[in-house]
Design brief:
The chain is an all-alpha fold and 323 residues long. It is globular. Strands 1-2 form a two-stranded antiparallel ribbon. It is built from nine helices and two strands.
Amino acid sequence: MSSQSANARPAAVARVAHTEHIGCLAGVALGAAGCVWLSRVLRGEAGLEWVGVASARVLALINESGMLGSVAAAALSAGVAAASCKAVVDVVRKPETLTQLYVPATFLGFTFGVGGVIAAGSPRHWSWGCYIMSMSAFHASEYFITALHNHDVLSVDSWLLNHSNAYGIAAMGSWVEYWIEATLFPGFQLPLISKVGVVIVVLADVLRKLAMHTAGSNFKHLVADDHIEDHRLITRGVYNFSRHPSYVGWFYWSVGTQLVLCNPICTVGYAVVSWRFFRDRIEYEELRLIEFFGEEYVDYKRNVGTGLPFISGYTTPYYASAK
């Protein structure tokens, strides 16, 4: 939704939200560090001593890399240690954070690390690694921004990992298509297309997160059916160029992921299905926005497009001139 609470949240709520989004970063960091360590162990390059502030591996890095390497190694070790302490304290104080926060965050951090290892170490499947990283970053940042502004609705659903059955089926379909093509038709894997896809994915996800941040405490993953009195319409920032920038970002992000994988079938399929989904959602949401804000939203609608191709939004005979 493109409106935002006019009143500042109580300080206590803000402090809790701060804890949650820092916890998200801590969990992701632990997962990524764990993935890197595991990959090194499996390749016989490191043992358990790689982990730890004063480990032999860190000392070796310090000796090999000079002052810059010393700072980087110390920062990495301190970050892993701080993240571990943060996770332990949070779980002891509030056990439910284990399943709501740290398990998903660590999982996404680990998968992000897996993607990075594949992208860096397997030229043939670097696009698959980039895809995994983009999926992990998307879902982790959804929770992070929600924790930053909307602690009152924060839950395990805020990761969007359980978005819908259709979302899961679509993702698995893209995996099947990629591996069939990579195995049987490797000529379909065009590096230039994948690189274009990576650029689209990054820019689209940034746009979505800017939209969430700009909307602030009123951004919800579900369309609101009831108007909260102290909410107001947001038309600044990215909303000055699109009435639904978060949907624009998600639409192009979803299509971009398939360009990364060079999936011709899923690229078309994702574009068509996502377009239909956002067309219907925007119409329903704008019906509510017109009810909430009346002529203020109609004027906004008249001057700013949705940002999505061939989608004009909700229209009735009375508001036909607002298209």
